[in-house]
Amino acid sequence: MKILLLGEYSNVHWTLACALRKLGHEVCVVSNGDEWKGYPSDIALTRKSGRLGSIAYLYKVLRLLPKLRGYDVVQLINPVHFIDLKAERGIRIYDYLRRHNKRVYLGAFGYDHYYVYDSVVRRTLRYCDYYTPTREVHHEWNTANERDWLHTFKKEANIHIANTCDGIISGLYEYDVAYRPYFPEKTTFIPLPIEMNETVNDNQAETDEANRKLRFFIGIQRHRTTLKGTDIMLRALERLVANYPDQAEMIKAESVPFAQYKEMLRSSDILLDQIYSYTPAMNALLAMSQGLIVVSGGEEESYAILNEKELRPIINVQPDEADIYHQLEQLVLYPERIAQLKHDSIEYVRRHHDSIKVAKQYLEAWGK
Fold first, then answer.
1. N or C: which end of the chain has fewer CB within 10 A?
2. In what order do the strands lie in the sheet with 315-316?
3. Is the pLDDT of residue 311 over 80?
4. DSSP-H helix ranges across the chain
């Protein structure tokens, strides 16, 4: 099968492409590397700032279009951000792809009209990055997304693509519940892919932690610390390290490239990821595959959609600083739990997110 993957979020498409190639398929990834994160691609489609940068980018896209024809499957990472053009121009690219390829699929992997509408209007989840049971979550990113996805042409573009594409692939429980009420026949949930040959051995997860500090890792994206509740997690972690200086230490990464991030992650025990999600995403899953314990979203709904009835390796936290601190403190006070949680983290990813298993699920969905 000849497959084109357009756009990138958190290395999803590149990881999927590597697995599909191992299964004997021809794959091309075209993306901007998810901007500063610098993920790999086969064709780097990056845009420089300014008017001249915009003109050069549009010229680059127009020259590339003939190479984006004749594929069995095309998948967009997002209804707008699969390409760095305004939605009014991006929709023309989508229509071109529909005309010149056999099937086109829409990925539900991040912010779009249906997710923002579910968060702002329908409010089907108990909490998300727009609200919690006790407060509204206000920051510039939310305001911009609400405006863009509910009140601009991005909304019309998303609706048009969702209605005319051949299928919708959701990567997290939260995105699945946003699309499924409107497209029950077209929406397929497929877990995010993780390349398992990058994992540690199981016996590395059984290291005795009793004689050294637990290393807590937290990643900070400048200007976006409130987006995933990193600011709240950071406050809880700083208080924990201050109260238990002999048992806990903090490793902090601020807006570093993906390669450097992975190196810093490998030296840690516990990753603090995000507080507004029901489900661990790529960042958390990569850490789990390496035997780290993840503090993130691990609600029962996220296990149920995977049909996982045994493993519960994720330290599920509520969007509340007191609860986060309590959960972190339990890891420090009961270090005998660490080895089993690390072992279970690897097994969880192996069962549900092994990129080869995930790629086969994609091939099945695309073949329907």
1. C
2. 248-254, 214-220, 270-272, 293-296, 315-316
3. yes
4. 12-22, 50-64, 87-100, 113-117, 140-151, 153-164, 173-179, 230-243, 258-266, 282-289, 300-304, 321-333, 338-352, 355-367
In this structure, the number of other CB atoms found within 10 A of the CB of residue 44 comes to: 13
Q: Is 143 exposed, middle or buried (0-12, 13-18, 19+ CB in 10 A)?
A: exposed
pLDDT at 259 over 80: no
Residue 102 C-alpha from the chain's centroid: 27
What is the DSSP annotation of 281-295? -HHHHHHHHTT-EEE
Per-residue pLDDT tens over the stretch 19-33: 999 999 999 999 999
Higher-confidence residue of 220 and 97: namely 97
CA angle, corner 244, sides to 242 and 250, nearest 5? 65
Closest CA to 281 of 132, 169, 171, 145: 171
CB 197 within 8 A of CB 233: no
Q: Distance between CA atoms of 168 and 223, rounded to whole angstroms?
A: 31
User: Distance (Å, rounded) from C-alpha 88 to C-alpha 95?
Assistant: 11
Question: pLDDT (tens digit, 9 = 90+) per residue, 130-149?
Answer: 999 999 998 888 999 999 99
| pLDDT for 29 | 98
Domains in the chain, ordered, with CATH?
2-193+355-367 (3.40.50), 196-352 (3.40.50.2000)
Q: What's the confidence (pLDDT) of residue 199? A: 44
187 vs 169: CA distance, rounded Å: 6
**322: amino acid identity, one letter:** A
- Banded pLDDT at 308 (limits 50, 70, 90): very high
What ranges in 165-278 are assigned the alpha helix state H? 173-179, 230-243, 258-266
User: What pLDDT does 211 receive?
Assistant: 58
Look at residue 318 and tell me whether its pLDDT is greater than 60: yes
**Beta carbons of 233 and 326 less than 8 angstroms apart:** no
CA neighbor of 236 nearest in space, from 177, 318, 160: 318
* Positive/negative CA dihedral, 70, 75, 80, 84: negative
Tokens 């995010």 sit on residue: 192
Distance CA 253, CA 335 (A): 24
Please choose, from the candidates 277, 228, 314, the residue with its C-alpha nearest in 3D space to the C-alpha of residue 128: 277
